[in-house]
């Protein structure tokens, strides 16, 4: 980062602190009670968890925790003991009202509602219903509410800034009994929640991953990472209920710090070759892709078979918006298929800031790397200023660049 850029960027020494993360190692799947047990084992004080859950204002349950050994590994088995289970199903609005009515922190409420919404979206899809009409059965029970709100409490108390995981392992080949009757493993709601998230389908005929566990990761995880940049502070094991011959029925959670030099996540690369579409349509396609959440979309001229000129449409996106991206591609272009592959991304930290300049309050981009920060003009902000003041865009850029380097 030298030469031209060094002329107009501002470098300020700052103190960077590592990011506190939780990494969920789902070698035997994940469920709500396994999540709570692992986080308690990793350092969440059990008495504090109980006290915070009482702020929900929901009667009819007790929380019990005990140490057990699985395959020689010490783990925490956490159980929600129901003393008064309501005899009715809840809608999403009922659960959100219950959470909002408690005195937990705003962050805990937001996190818990985000997890429940993931479940609601999946349940509505599976049952051909809507968010407003879908009923919560197992996940609407008191124990699942405690699991989800409890996990949110633990993550806040442990100071977790970001969540990552391994690819989620699920069972297959068996069945599980639910309120809707016997369902295949993985349960339809579970696999719907995990759609687009890295998943491993094992040959173990047991429900390794439940809808609650899947939703915790889908709602909160920033993706799959490797651990070479993590400094592990504590490790927790949460035990599931069943003994499974093929694998210890445990969820392992690493709590520690991620080195701050570069952020790391996983995105998806989507590509397709097109040679039979009016190229004037492509700018609209790219606009639609960006509108549904793709990070980037662009075209490259290519020469295809039989000497035909064509276009390579390339898209970079997060997995959580992969389906909307594919819908745009198949609806708006003539392609019959796409290539999809995961791509690990390393990126410099960026933040949006508002600073005072000669143009008044101005939004700029703060780029943070290796303990230094530089401020860079935002293109859209420069366009706004140029339009409002009838100035050439290049002059606005130059003025801001001079001011940002001081």
Summarize the structure.
About 30% of the residues lie in helices and about 35% in strands.
Give structural notes.
The chain is α+β, with helices and mostly antiparallel strands and 406 residues long. It has three domains: 27-261, no CATH class; 264-347, Alpha-Beta Plaits; 348-404, no CATH class. 31% of the residues lie in helices and 33% in strands. The chain is built from eleven helices and 19 strands. The strands form six sheets. A five-stranded mixed β-sheet has the order 10-5-2-12-11. Strands 1-19-18-17 form a four-stranded antiparallel β-sheet. The longest helix has 22 residues, at 106-127.
Structural features:
four-stranded antiparallel β-sheet, 3 domains, Alpha-Beta Plaits, 406 residues
Which range does the strand content fall in? 25-35%
* Number of E-state strands: 19
| Share of helix, binned | 25-40%
> What strand line-up does the widest sheet have?
10-5-2-12-11
Amino-to-carboxy terminus distance:
19 Å
Instruction: Determine Rg (CA atoms, Å).
Output: 25 Å
Low-pLDDT regions: 1-16
**What is the overall shape?**
globular
What structural category arises from helix and sheet content?
A: alpha+beta
Could you describe the largest sheet, including whether it forms a barrel? 5 strands, mixed
The total number of structural domains is: 3
Helical segment count:
11
Average pLDDT over all residues:
87
Report the order of strands and helices: EEHHEEHHHEEEEHEHEEEEHEEHEEEEHH
């Amino acid at each position: 980062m030298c030469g031209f850029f060094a002329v107009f960027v501002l470098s300020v020494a700052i103190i960077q602190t590592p990011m506190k993360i939780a990494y969920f190692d789902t070698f035997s799947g994940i469920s709500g009670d396994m999540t709570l047990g692992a986080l308690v084992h990793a350092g969440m004080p059990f008495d504090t968890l109980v006290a915070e859950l009482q702020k929900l204002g929901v009667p009819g349950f007790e929380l019990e925790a005990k140490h057990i050994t699985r395959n020689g590994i010490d783990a925490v088995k956490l159980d929600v003991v129901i003393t008064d289970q309501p005899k009715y199903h809840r809608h999403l609005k009922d659960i959100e009202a219950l959470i909002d009515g408690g005195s937990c922190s705003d962050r805990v409420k937001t996190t818990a509602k985000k997890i429940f919404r993931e479940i609601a979206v999946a349940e509505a899809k599976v049952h051909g219903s809507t968010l407003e009409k879908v009923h919560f059965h197992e996940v609407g029970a008191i124990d699942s509410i405690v699991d989800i709100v409890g996990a949110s409490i633990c993550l806040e108390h442990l100071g977790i800034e970001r969540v990552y995981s391994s690819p989620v392992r699920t069972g297959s080949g068996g069945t599980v009994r639910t309120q809707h009757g016997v369902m295949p493993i993985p349960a339809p709601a579970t696999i719907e929640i995990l759609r687009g998230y890295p998943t491993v389908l094992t040959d173990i005929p047991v429900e390794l991953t439940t809808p609650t566990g899947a939703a915790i990761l889908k709602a909160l995880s920033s993706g799959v990472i490797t651990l070479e940049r993590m400094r592990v502070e504590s490790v927790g094991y949460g035990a599931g209920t069943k003994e499974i011959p093929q694998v210890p029925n445990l969820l392992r959670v690493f709590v520690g710090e991620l080195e701050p030099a570069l952020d790391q996540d996983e995105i998806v690369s989507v590509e397709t070759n097109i040679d039979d579409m009016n190229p004037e349509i492509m700018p609209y396609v790219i606009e639609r892709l960006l509108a549904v959440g793709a990070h980037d979309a662009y075209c490259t001229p290519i020469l295809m078979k039989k000497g035909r000129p064509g276009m390579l449409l390339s898209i970079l996106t997060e997995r959580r918006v992969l389906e909307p991206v594919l819908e745009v591609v198949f609806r708006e272009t003539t392609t019959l298929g796409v290539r999809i592959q995961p791509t690990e991304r390393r990126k410099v930290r960026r933040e949006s800031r508002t600073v005072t300049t000669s143009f008044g309050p101005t939004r700029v981009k703060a780029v943070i790397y290796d303990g230094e920060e530089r401020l860079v003009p935002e293109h859209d902000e420069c366009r706004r200023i140029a339009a409002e003041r009838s100035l050439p865009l290049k002059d606005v850029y130059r003025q801001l660049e001079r001011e940002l380097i001081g």
